[in-house]
Amino acid sequence: MSNFQFPLQRLLDLRQRAEDEARCQLAASQRQVTCQQDRLDRLQYACVEARGDATPAAGQTVTPGLLLNNGLYASRLQMLATAQQTHVESSIRQERADSAQLLHKAQGRQVLQRLKERRYEQHLGEQARRESRRSEEMASAVYAAKRLEAERAGAA
Which of 76, 102, 115, 149 is most buried, judged by most C-beta within 10 A? Predict the structure, then answer.
């Protein structure tokens, strides 16, 4: 019984490795999106808080300097949030590109994997046919030997 060896196994292994690397890259992109989105959420929350601090509590006096400082702080936070939104969108685009790349690499590997499975099935079928032929030859040889022996016994 011979062992099955897929002639394109090295290529299949390389494609598997490339797919694994693409999967890791996609995971890194997803973590990046999550971190960027968390930072954006914190900035947006700080913007809301800064706007809320502009309204004085009961009995509190508000000076023009305090309002100006608070307004400058809120506008700075808003600028940072806008810039962060750009980073989030860029990270999402990168994540989509990495996802598409992973899909492409997975499809390439799957094609070779199916070919390997098909070739393995052919190998098993051929092995079964060879085994069947050997069994038939053996049965034929045993039958011929018995017949020859019976002819000799009948002739004697």
Answer: 102
